Each structure stands twice: as structure tokens, then as C-alpha cells.
Amino acid sequence: MASVLQIKGSWRAQIRRKGVSESKTFPTKRQAEAWARQREADIDAGRVTVDANPDLTVAHVIAAYRKLRDASRPISDQSNEHYMLKALSAGLGSVLVDRMTPQDLVTYCTIRAEDGAGPYTLNMEMSKLGTVFRYAAVQLRVALPDVVGQARPLLSHLRLIGGGGKRERRPTEDEMTRILQHMGATYGEVYADAVRFAVASAMRRGEICEITHADIDENRIVSVWRKHPRKGKVLERVPLLADAWEIVERQPKSEDGRVFPISAGTLSKYFTWTCRALSIPDLHLHDMRHEGASRLFEDGLQIEQVAMITGHKSWNMLKRYTQLKPEDVQAASSRKRSKASDTSR
Question: Cα–Cα distance between 47 and 228 in angstroms, integer?
Fold first, then answer.
């Protein structure tokens, strides 16, 4: 509720709303009350920023949010949140906050979609932008516009944002061969091997690019920091099966000790560019994790064994990463029977 006080013949209106404190002086009480009502309505609707910050950009707001998080829960450089903020800053950073429109977000999401980002990813990025604006408003002592809320109906109508759903896209053998050949020849064999390892280990891109040779013991078990639904990040010991171990063994020693001394973001970018160059539709780097989980089941591993490798804490979540076909199960069963028959002879 605004307060209106008479001071030396003038009337001062002061408002405190959603972390914003503003005051302005008027010659009459009626003018002061009218201004206060309008400002409160504008702030509640998220339509304006404070007059003192006409040059405030999205990049400034994201920087303020990072600073706020540094004081409580720092954002890891390898986290999904970091990459979302990096993408938002790159695509929207120069936009002035008080001039931002829903069309700016439509343009951003369209460009990201053309680069391979799916509706669920873009939905997460828009949600993160909304969170950034809400919390940074307190840090900056401004009222930031709720452009994300205004843009959501249009983004949804255009199918630029959407729910996660269950992806069933698996690469064919020919697609994998072409992708690995192109990445090795164009960007270096380390990128092709990182993709091979993504399938063989079913690890996330951040995990792949973080592990070091020192993290792997003599039993071919690697210690990996992984996301946990309740505990944040936890250290888990993950077995490296035959193909994954062979890929690790052939990697040369790097200066920083990492098995794959590359950036997770660059790996995703090169994978997207490769699929685009080869006209391979609707395939993402994260699908390699799906492919890896599916292959582990096809090789005859049990749910608990696959979960130990992938890091999933429930079967419901693991199911989303598994795309088995009846033919694959039949083939795996035949291989198992054949192996058992050979052993009994």
C-alpha cells in the first residue's frame, strides 16, 4: 500500500512493491495518489522497469542473478543451469529489458530450435529466464517485466515450447557411422570418440567432459559426480564396460588430466552441426545417452545394473531413456541362448 505524505507544501508518494521502493513528489495529493496507483498496477503486471535504469539489458539481469546465487548456491560451470544462462545471455543479452517484447522471445526460441533445441529444452530456458527476472529484480531493486508469461501462449501455439515427453529417436547404424566419420574428420577424433563414449557409457555430456584418468581405478571403475534428485550432486562409482574402457585407453594424456579435454557445450554444438551437414533430422547429442541405455538392456543387463551405469534412481526415469524394439529383444534372447548352448557343449 502506497503512503502519501505532505512535506513542505508538496505531496510525496512512496511505494514498496515486490522488492521495489520508489518515491516521487507532486504539487497536489490527488496527483500523488494517482501516480502511486498506476505504478503499483504496472509493477504488479510486470509492465515496466524503474525510470532510473533505462539502459538495463538482459545480460545485466543475468549477471545480477549469478551474483545473487554466488552468495547462496553457486552455479557450477558444468551444470545445465550454467549452459541455459549462457545461451540466454548469448541470444538475448543485448536486449533492453524495458523494450523486450514477446516477439523477442519467439525470435530467440526459433533460432534455438533451428540449432537443434527441442520444445522441452526451450521450455526450461524460458522458465529459467522467468526465474532470473523474479530474483534479479530484488537484487537490482527494480520491477522487471513479465515478458516470459506474456510470450508463453504464443510460444506454445507455435510449438516452440512443450513438455518433455518420451523421445523414441534412436540413430541407425548408417547414421552413427556417418556422424562419427564427419566429426572425426572435421573437428578431430577426440570429438568422435566422445560421442562413441557417450553411447558406450550412457553418461551425460557434462560427466564425459569432466572425468580424468585419475578418476579411474585399476578395476576400470570411474568416480563421477552426478545429479541426485534430493542431494544435489553425489560421487558415484561407475563401471566402464568393454567398449567404454577401450575408448578411454586410447585417449592420449592431456595437460589437465581429463580423458576428453573438450567443452561440453562445444561437443553438443559440433554434433548439431554435423547432423545438419549430413541432413540427419531430429537427432540430439543427448539421444546418445538414450541409445546407450537401450543397448545395455539389449546386451542382457538387469534394471539395477543399467541404473548403476546410467545413474537413474527410479525405473520410471530410466524407462524414459530406454527405447527397446521387439526385434531387439528377440535378437538379444537369441544371442543369449546361442551363448548358453556353446557353453554347454
Answer: 38
Characterize the bridge pairing of strands 232-239 and 221-228: antiparallel
- 325: cell is 524394439
Name 57's bridge partners.
Answer: 96
Q: CB–CB of 81/75 below 8 Å?
A: yes
Of 210, 247, 244, nearest in space to 226 by CA: 210
Could you tell me which residues are beta bridge partners of residue 224? 236
Residue 65 has pLDDT above 90, yes or no: yes
Does residue 140 sit in the same domain as residue 9? no
Helix segments in the chain, DSSP class H = 29-45, 58-70, 80-92, 102-114, 119-140, 147-157, 173-187, 189-201, 205-208, 242-249, 264-277, 287-298, 303-310, 315-320, 326-344
Distance from the Cα of residue 251 to its chain's centroid: 28
Q: How far apart are CA 9 and CA 172, in angstroms?
A: 80
Which of 159, 191, 164 lies closest to 274 in space, CA to CA?
191
Same domain, 110 and 213: no
Query: Which of 14, 11, 36 lies closest to 26, judged by CA?
Result: 11
Q: How far apart are alpha carbons 238 and 296 in whole angstroms?
A: 14
**Residue 96: φ, ψ to 5°:** -75, 130
- The answer to the question of residue 162 being in a domain is no
- Cβ atoms of 332 and 296 closer than 8 Å: no
Average pLDDT of the chain? 84
The reply to whether 195 and 297 lie within a common domain is yes
Reading the block at residue 56, the C-alpha cell is: 538495463
Q: For 124, list phi and psi in degrees, rounded to 5.
A: -65, -40
Least confident of 114-118, 212-216, 269-273, 311-315: 311-315
* pTM for this prediction: 0.54
209 plus 265 within the same structural domain? yes
Assign 165 a pLDDT band (cuts: 50, 70, 90).
low
| Placement of cell 548456491 in the chain | 73
Contacts of 65 (CB under 8 A, 6+ apart): 85, 131, 132, 135, 136, 139
Amino acid making up residue 102: P
